[in-house]
Design goal:
- The protein has helices spanning 7-21, 28-39, 74-86, 103-111, 113-133, 195-215, 231-241, 257-267, 306-314, 336-346, 360-364; strands at 47-52, 58-62, 94-100, 143-151, 157-166, 168-170, 184-186, 248-251, 278-281, 285-292, 298-305, 325-329, 378-384.
- With 404 residues, it is of the alpha+beta class.
- It has a domain at 88-272 and 317-346.
- The strands form 4 sheets. The protein has a 5-stranded antiparallel β-sheet with strand order 8-3-5-4-12, sandwiched between helices.
- The longest helix is centred in the N-terminal third of the chain and has 21 residues, at 113-133.
- The two termini are 33 Å apart.
Length: 404
């Protein structure tokens, strides 16, 4: 097994040829992602020289690009996000529900990412909220953490939303006997909500929105889908989608809050392919591991031409400012603290104290601040500025905030 291979090497070897071959079809976001991955943790982005206060080891540490599509830049972002979520976990079972777009919708989504991905989020969250609020199923307000993934194991376009949901919530109908007129409603052991009911409502809620977006001029079509710009053809496409089954999948509940955090850590800041999956990089091809879930998750190796590998990876770039992690229900940002306090009260849990502001040292500590030789503390000695001949282009302007 090859070790130390990185996505950056693919783009450094083959990126220029890919830009030339696809010059007329390569968008600004894709170009920026390619440059970010290529330059991440190189002298082009500057850095610093640090030395060990114990053994005197000196090493150069270059800055990260902090682009959310870069596999090397997600560790710190993931750790900070999980630390913020830990205090929000409740001692109840958590369920994992996945909402997937059928292939004919995924085609439209690829050409209209911001609009259709946003519809996917809204439809999935509203489906969970409506079915959970129905007293025939749960009769409670639920909280949802939703994470967008757009890839399958072989890097093809496969948009779907992973939802992590506590197995219960405050009752919808007031219960006068309970404090505050509300009680905690727990789902049945090992069962959250019926997936067939979820699937039907998800399909209905989703398909109600593209027509509105079409009429508002928010959808555009090109290439093989150019014909859908005609209203009759678009209406006909929606009609066929109402007659097929939409896939909603619910996994068994997690065993505890530690497992919930471990799951979230795997999914929230994942990119289309991790460096650890790369097996080989040559002057012509890229090989990577993938799991074939049609054959019980068997691990296999796929080899693609470098051009095709990069094309597949770039399918999953997201529009500027698009948030791929969203919160709904009692976990929505606007009232999360208030609603979580209510949940804790209904569950008879002690109130949590708000976290103190992190110290400057804690906020700036590098995750590799230990000496690899003796374990001592690495101390910054010299700052390395970016080379004067290198300047970021305007398309780089959102690098430093591209982490949503």
């Amino acid at each position: 097994m090859s070790a130390g291979l990185e996505l950056a090497e693919v783009f450094r070897r083959h990126g220029d040829a890919y830009r030339r071959a696809h010059d007329g079809h390569l968008g600004r976001v894709e170009r920026r992602v390619m440059s970010a991955v290529e330059l991440c943790r190189t002298a082009a982005l500057g850095g610093h020289v640090e030395h060990c206060s114990d053994c005197g080891l000196v090493r150069h540490a270059y800055n990260s690009c902090r682009n959310r599509h870069c596999p090397k830049c997600q560790g710190q972002a993931r750790a900070e996000w999980l630390a913020a979520r830990q205090a929000e976990l409740l001692p109840v079972p958590y369920f994992h529900v996945v909402f997937t777009l059928p292939a004919p919708v995924a085609e439209i989504a690829f050409q209209n990412k911001a609009t259709v991905y946003a519809i996917l989020f809204r439809a999935a969250a509203e489906t969970l909220r409506r079915i959970a609020a129905d007293p025939r199923h749960l009769g409670a307000e639920v909280g949802v953490v939703a994470v967008l993934h757009t890839w399958g194991q072989t890097l093809q376009h496969h948009p779907h939303v992973h939802c992590v949901v506590p197995g219960g919530g405050p009752s919808i109908k007031p219960a006068p006997a309970e404090a505050g007129g509300t009680r905690w409603v727990a789902c049945r052991p090992g069962f959250f909500l019926p997936v067939r009911v979820l699937s039907r409502l998800f399909r209905r809620l989703f398909l109600a929105q593209p027509q509105l977006a079409f009429e508002a001029g928010e959808l555009s079509f090109f290439g093989d889908l150019a014909g859908l710009a005609e209203p009759t053809a678009f209406a006909r496409r929606l009609g066929t989608l109402r007659r097929i089954e939409w896939v909603v999948y619910a996994k068994p509940p997690f065993g505890g809050s530690a497992q919930v955090l471990a799951y979230l850590g795997r999914y929230t800041h994942r990119v289309a392919i991790a460096n650890s999956r790369l097996v080989g990089i040559t002057d012509r091809e890229v090989a990577f591991r993938w799991r074939d879930y049609r054959h019980h998750g068997k691990s296999k190796v796929m080899t693609l031409a470098a051009d095709e590998f990069m094309r597949r990876f770039l399918l999953h770039t997201l529009p500027d400012g698009f948030h791929r992690i969203r919160h709904y229900g009692f976990l929505a940002n606007s009232h999360r603290a208030e609603k979580l306090a209510l949940c804790r009260r209904l569950l008879a849990l002690p109130a949590t104290e708000p976290d103190a502001e992190p110290s400057q040292d804690a906020a700036t500590t590098h995750r590799n601040d230990r000496c690899p030789c003796c374990g001592g503390t690495m101390v910054v000695r010299t700052v390395l500025p970016r080379p004067q001949h290198w300047r970021p282009t305007p398309s780089w302007s959102s690098f430093w905030n591209d982490t949503s």
